[in-house]
């Protein structure tokens, strides 16, 4: 991962790195060698550590999950920063171990949980591995992909922000929602104000960062209020790297599910109910009129024939 972009993954069966993004052919051999050293070594270390952890926790599970994350950073001026390692294990609260190596000060801070015997990994060996394998390769790959994907990674897309007030279905409460979507990079600060004062976070729901299909992100925070609190002045305040100043958005009212389709359906039903009897009456009158006209024509024809018969000389 580079920030929030997946660069690739390691296939432990075939022992090769597979890239999600385009890679130059001249870098392929170097990247495969680096992947073999870093991922291969990490994979073997994790297998060995997992065996010890299963034994330590007396695990009888068919599947146990051991996770490790290692990351490095570049500071301003292309200066290497810290490299950090975190280990976690299924069923264990917190981190099993955390390693922070400061390249500038050449110092290693290693904290581990006391319930685990880490004597099989002496600190001097940990420092050597981080300093001579993980850190230089990580920085080299980071620089390479930063240069290659700079235009994509350093882009800034402004958020589209709305503040909605929505009446909840089957409830007397109203939901006030602050929504920001379509922004990049992912870091954003979303604050809901009530009469100019921030609403405490423990009263809000949401606040999770979610990805959009176009590579941007969205976040929303919602507050449910009773009828007496609806008329307060609510404001959504957003700060983001793409904005020169903070963005303040006032309420757009969302009445909830539209009743227009229901109204149209009722009117249509009433129209049909009214028109059916009228149409039936019109048809009946036409039929009755036609029958009467036919009968009149028949009577007139019969009278004419009788008159002709009475004047016929014999």
Short description:
By secondary structure, the chain is an alpha+beta fold.
Task: Please characterize this protein's 3D structure.
Helix 1 runs antiparallel to helix 2. With 314 residues, this protein is an alpha+beta fold. The protein is elongated, with a radius of gyration of 39 Å. The longest helix is centred in the C-terminal third of the chain and has 51 residues, at 260-310. The protein is built from four helices and 16 strands. The strands form four sheets. Strands 7, 8, 11, 12, 13 and 16 form a six-stranded mixed beta sheet that branches. A four-stranded antiparallel beta sheet has the order 3-4-5-6. The N and C termini lie far apart (122 Å). The chain has two domains: 8-153, 2-Layer Sandwich (Murine Class I Major Histocompatibility Complex, H2-DB, Chain A, domain 1), CATH 3.30.500.10; 160-254, Sandwich (Immunoglobulin-like). The chain crosses the membrane at residues 259-284. This is Major histocompatibility complex class I-related gene protein-like. One of its GO terms (biological process) is immune response. Keywords: Glycoprotein, Immunoglobulin domain, Membrane, Transmembrane, Transmembrane helix.
The largest sheet, given as strand count, sense and whether it forms a barrel, is:
6 strands, mixed
The SSE string, one letter per element, is: EEHEEEEHHEEEEEEEEEEH
CATH names the topology of the largest domain as: Murine Class I Major Histocompatibility Complex, H2-DB, Chain A, domain 1
Helix/strand-derived class?
alpha+beta
Compute the number of helices: 4
Strand content: 25-35%
Question: What's the average pLDDT?
Answer: 78
Task: State the end-to-end distance.
Answer: 122 Å
CATH architecture of the largest domain: 2-Layer Sandwich
Question: Percentage of helical residues?
Answer: 25-40%
Q: What are the segments in which pLDDT stays under 50 over at least 5 consecutive residues?
A: none
Shape: elongated
CATH class of the largest domain: Alpha Beta
Q: How many distinct folded domains?
A: 2
Instruction: Output the CATH homologous superfamily of the largest domain.
Output: MHC class I-like antigen recognition-like
The tally of beta strands, per DSSP, is 16
Domain Ig-like: 159-250
GO cellular component, one term: external side of plasma membrane
Keywords: Glycoprotein, Immunoglobulin domain, Membrane, Transmembrane, Transmembrane helix
Pfam families: C1-set
């Amino acid at each position: 991962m580079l920030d929030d972009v997946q660069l690739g993954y390691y296939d432990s069966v075939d022992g090769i790195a597979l890239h999600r993004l385009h890679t130059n052919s001249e870098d392929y051999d170097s990247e495969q060698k680096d992947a073999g050293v870093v991922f291969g070594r990490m994979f073997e270390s994790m297998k060995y550590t997992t065996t010890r952890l299963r034994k330590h926790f007396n695990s009888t599970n068919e599947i146990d999950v051991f996770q490790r994350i290692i990351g490095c950073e570049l500071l301003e001026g292309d200066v290497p920063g810290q490299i950090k390692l975190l280990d976690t294990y299924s069923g264990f609260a917190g981190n099993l171990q955390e390693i922070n190596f400061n390249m500038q000060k050449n110092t290693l801070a290693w904290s581990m949980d006391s319930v685990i015997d880490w004597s099989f990994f002496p600190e001097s060996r940990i420092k050597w591995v981080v300093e001579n394998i993980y850190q230089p390769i990580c920085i080299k790959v980071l620089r390479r992909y930063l240069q290659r994907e700079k235009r994509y990674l350093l882009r800034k897309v402004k958020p589209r922000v709305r503040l909605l007030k929505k009446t909840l279905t089957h409830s007397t409460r109203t939901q006030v929602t602050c929504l920001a979507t379509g922004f990049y990079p992912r870091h954003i600060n979303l604050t809901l104000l009530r009469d100019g004062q921030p609403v405490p976070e423990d009263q809000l729901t949401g606040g999770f960062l979610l990805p959009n299909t176009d590579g941007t992100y969205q976040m929303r925070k919602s507050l449910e209020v009773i009828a007496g609190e609806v008329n307060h002045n609510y404001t959504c305040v957003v700060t983001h790297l793409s904005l020169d100043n903070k963005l303040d958005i006032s309420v757009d009212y969302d009445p909830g599910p539209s009743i227009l389709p229901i109204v149209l359906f009722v009117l249509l039903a009433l129209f049909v109910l009214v028109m059916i009897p009228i149409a039936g009456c019109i048809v009946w009158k036409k039929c009755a009129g036609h029958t009467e006209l036919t009968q009149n024509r028949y009577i007139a024809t019969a009278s004419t024939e009788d008159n002709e018969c009475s004047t016929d000389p014999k």
